């Protein structure tokens, strides 16, 4: 009778050890702005908007531990060989990191890739965050044109959640979506201009 109990204790201890050893870091794509109509980038050195330089993608660490994102990369709906940006540094728990189109230019120039910026198509695209092994997909999101038109951003609602919604405070949908403003590098904020459901929005725009 003793052996099974010993085994149970060992299995229990082993399971606990394994659980403690599991990496708990979790970084997600959180918001993107594909069709800028404003001068979003604080690093492009101008006061005007550019269709490529003022695009942006925001990532967020939703886990409890810091995550080293050095070597992680972004791509859009093209082949894996056309990387748009490579991250560097450590993202703290709850930390946001934003990449602007002009910063993607600079990374592409420095790494010998075509100068496409983030290349977020206004008619719809797929954005993928890939780990430093250049094959593991950390997160991926697809959007459609009406969700990003003229300064609408597309993001998780609320931040880090499973569901995505349209932040249409600058260019309201009819019927309205969240009514929130795009927030590069920050949590969403603002007051809803109305309530709606995706089924209603899809009924109008699809
Ligand atoms: Ca675009
Ligand atoms: Ca600009
Ligand atoms: Ca693209
Ligand atoms: Ca945000």
The helix count comes to 4
Ligands, deduplicated: calcium ion
CATH superfamily of the domain at 25-167: Lamin Tail domain
How much strand content do the residues show?
Answer: 15-25%
The CATH topology annotation of the domain at 25-167 reads as Immunoglobulin-like
As a percent range, the share of helical residues equals 10-25%
SSE order, as H and E?
HEEEEEEEHEEHEEH
Unreliable parts: 1-24, 193-206
Radius of gyration: 20 Å
Main sheet record: 5 strands, antiparallel
SS class: alpha+beta
Cα-to-Cα separation, first versus last residue: 66 Å
Mean pLDDT, to the nearest integer, reads 85
Highest CATH level, the class of the domain at 25-167: Mainly Beta
Strand order of the largest sheet: 7-2-1-10-11
* Topology, number of strands: 11
CATH architecture of the domain at 25-167, by name, is: Sandwich
Q: What is the 3D shape?
A: globular
In brief:
The chain has 206 residues and is of the alpha+beta class. The chain has helices at 2-21, 101-111, 145-148, 198-205; strands at 27-33, 56-61, 67-68, 73-75, 85-86, 90-91, 96-100, 124-130, 137-144, 153-156, 164-167. The protein contains 4 helices and 11 strands; from the N terminus they run H-E-E-E-E-E-E-E-H-E-E-H-E-E-H.
Structure notes:
- The structure is a single chain.
- With 206 residues, the chain is of the alpha+beta class.
- The protein has a domain at 25-167: Lamin Tail domain (Immunoglobulin-like).
- It is 21% helix and 24% strand.
- The chain has 4 helices and 11 strands.
- The chain has helices at 2-21, 101-111, 145-148, 198-205, and strands at 27-33, 56-61, 67-68, 73-75, 85-86, 90-91, 96-100, 124-130, 137-144, 153-156, 164-167.
- Strands 7-2-1-10-11 form a 5-stranded antiparallel β-sheet. A 4-stranded antiparallel β-sheet has the order 5-4-8-9. A two-stranded antiparallel ribbon has the order 3-6.
- Strand 8 (124-130) and strand 9 (137-144) form a beta hairpin.
- The model is unreliable at 1-24 and 193-206 (pLDDT under 50).
- Bound molecules: calcium ion (CA) (4 copies).
- One calcium ion is lined by residues 39, 41, 44, 46, 48-50, 53-54.
């Amino acid at each position: 009778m003793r052996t099974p109990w010993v085994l149970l204790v060992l299995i229990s201890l082993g399971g606990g050890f394994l659980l403690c050893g599991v990496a708990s870091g979790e970084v997600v794509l959180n918001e993107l702005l594909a069709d800028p109509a404003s001068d979003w980038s604080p690093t492009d050195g101008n006061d005007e908007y550019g269709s490529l330089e003022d695009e942006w993608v925001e990532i967020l660490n939703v886990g409890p531990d810091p995550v080293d994102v050095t070597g992680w990369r972004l791509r859009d709906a093209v082949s894996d060989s056309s990387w748009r940006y490579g991250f560097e540094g450590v993202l703290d728990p709850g930390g946001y990191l934003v990449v602007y189109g002009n910063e993607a230019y600079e990374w592409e120039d420095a790494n010998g890739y075509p100068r496409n910026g983030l290349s977020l198509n206004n008619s719809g695209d797929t954005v993928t965050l890939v780990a430093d092994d250049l094959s593991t997909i950390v997160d991926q999101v697809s959007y459609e044109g009406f969700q990003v038109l003229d300064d609408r951003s597309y993001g998780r609602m609320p931040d880090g959640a499973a569901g995505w919604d349209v932040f249409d405070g600058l260019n309201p949908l009819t019927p309205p979506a969240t009514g929130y403003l795009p927030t590069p590098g920050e949590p969403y904020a603002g007051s809803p201009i109305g309530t709606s459901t995706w089924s209603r929005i899809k009924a109008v725009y699809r």
